[in-house]
Amino acid sequence: MKRTLTTCPYCGTGCQFYLVADDSGRLVGVEPSTQHVVSKGQLCVKGFNAFEFVHHPDRLTTPAVRRNGRLETVAWDEAIGLVASRLREIQHRHGPDSIAFFSSAKTTNEENYLMMKLARAAFGTNNIDHCARLCHASTVAGLAAAFGSGAMTNSISCMEQADCIFVTGSNTTEQHPLIGTRIIRNVVENGARLIVSDNRTIRLARLADIHIRPINGTDVALLNSMMHVIIAEGLENKPFIAQRTENYEQLKQVVADYPPEKAAQICRITADQIADAARMFARADRAMIVYSMGITQHTHGVDNVKSCANLAMLTGNIGRPGTGVNPLRGQNNVQGACDMGALPNVYSGYQKVTDPAVRAKFQKAWGVERLPDQPGLAVTTAINAAAEGRLKGLLIMGENPMLSDPDQNHVRTALENLDFLAVIDIFSTSTTEFAHVILPAASYAERDGTFTSTERRVQPIRRAIDPIANSRPDWRILCEIAARAGYSGMKYDSPRQVMDEINGLTPSYAGITYDRTITIAHHGLQWPCPDQEHPGTPILHSTSFARGRGLFSPAHYKPSAELPDDDYPLLLTTGRCYWHFHTGHFLYISPQLL
């Protein structure tokens, strides 16, 4: 048996395990890594079954082209040539912004970097985005405004160091089981206090000291009211506020409008619950906020995130172990895809496309005369543009917008309206039904690279077996498309060379070299890591914020854009269950476990 240490391809926790292959090159099992700093010998049901789908008979194994409404298998050379020529033809006929590229939170850092490079350097457009737009884009925007960095501030290990944990919008034991385990252990073994804000009775609510059940979409009112109580009772951290923050007076003015009695009516809870939660959080020596998509997937998601940041700064719970504002990323590489610039407004490391100095740096490194200087289309606006006929061509890597994006009829109209759609994936999906070309990708078990977990930990994935049948790694496919499109700046022999380029262009990743990640730091490194002597950064903002002083960004409560009425009386919420993976197209559970 051959054992290969790698990183789990499911949620953002970043667990590691050994893939076990027999002498025929077939994966036969998974063994948890007992040494890994996060998983510590444990896995959830997804991790324990992370080998099953790799050899599933439904895997895509050969390129296919749609002719006369039917898919026909073709050679790689023909398929790649068709993708490159059709995209180039559309670019020449309608302009570079008539095409778009959807990257993926399931693929590696190196592949997300190459996808954004392909879009910008080879085809001259900033129309590059991925599924973070639908889940944690509000986190990036909200925390970047407040702190200067849109990432989880602390490490997963801090879950066991907090005296009080405030969980909101996160069914943690279902969505991130091993992080949920850390919270439960701290509560049960160490006596940490637990506040849960969720209108469902999730598993953590059964252990909570306080379980608040606000109406969906009223989070700003709840958080503002908690801050109202803290300020009214003198529980705020005055030294921290004075030394490390700005705009505090405006916060005071806004939250003064949210006494518990008023917020209780908005949230449909009791005023005592709000006051008790505020006091419990503010009086703890180390209090932590944990949230997920339950507060981000709203029309006011950015305000929700900023309000969480306000609460943390108001009480001085930032920059220390057991504190912080900690968004939990849903997929294995949402953090990394954002870090790598698979977004319409930034390059890798969140360097803005509108900054002339940044563009000049990337132009020189990529060997192009000009890069586009205005932000491109996001996932949602790209779909709208396709439906309206403004977007003509689309290349999708590892995403399934037909199932994951809102309003499926609208997405269907958009995809059907495209002149050309190419999809790179490992299985047929609802989206490949509309593709003119389908390119079969290798799975995580069949390639090398890195993922970045929710705690900013950059970790390796390692090839355990050769690519199944005629599939190829995403990085190789993207490089071949670039070459056939006439761009010579994407010639790499391995992901190592791609990471070398990332190190040179991305300050926060400068010290996270391939050798350090793969051979020296077996459990990865947490960014920012500015040089090769730097040990990584487990906790952000310990002495100062990335933007200097933390910015209080108060927001008034606004009702959700769509509320129940007589025709549509139900209030629905997003969520994820233990046995389900995103759009469901690579989770296979062994029948013996069902």
Query: In the CATH hierarchy, what is the architecture of the largest domain at level 2?
Result: 3-Layer(aba) Sandwich
The CATH class of the largest domain is Alpha Beta
Mean pLDDT: 92
SSE class: alpha/beta
The largest sheet is:
7 strands, mixed
Distance between the termini: 27 Å
Radius of gyration: 24 Å
Q: And the CATH topology of the largest domain?
A: Rossmann fold
**Order of strands across the main sheet:** 5-4-16-15-14-6-7
Count of DSSP H/I helices: 22
Q: What fraction strand? A: 5-15%
Structure summary, number of beta strands: 20
Percent in helix: 25-40%
| Low-confidence runs | 587-594
What's a quick, concise take on this entry?
The protein is α/β, with parallel strands linked by helices and 594 residues long.
How would you describe what is shown here?
By secondary structure, the protein is α/β, with parallel strands linked by helices. It has three domains: 2-57 and 583-593, N-terminal domain of TfIIb (Single Sheet); 64-133 and 332-522, Rossmann fold; 153-328 and 546-551, Dimethylsulfoxide Reductase, domain 2. It is built from 22 helices and 20 strands. Strands 5-4-16-15-14-6-7 form a seven-stranded mixed sheet, sandwiched between helices. A hairpin with a 4-residue loop joins β17 and β18 (457-461). α2 crosses α20. The longest helix is centred in the first third of the chain and has 19 residues, at 76-94. The protein is globular and about 70 Å long.
What is the element layout, followed by pairings?
Blueprint: E1 2-7, E2 16-21, E3 27-32, H1 45-48, E4 64-67, E5 70-73, H2 76-94, E6 99-102, H3 109-122, E7 128-129, H4 132-135, H5 137-147, E8 164-168, H6 172-175, H7 177-190, E9 193-197, E10 210-212, H8 219-232, H9 238-244, E11 245-246, H10 248-255, H11 260-267, H12 271-283, E12 287-291, H13 293-296, H14 301-314, E13 324-327, H15 334-339, H16 356-366, H17 379-388, E14 393-397, H18 401-404, H19 408-417, E15 420-425, E16 437-440, E17 449-452, E18 457-461, H20 474-484, H21 495-505, H22 514-520, E19 525-526, E20 550-551
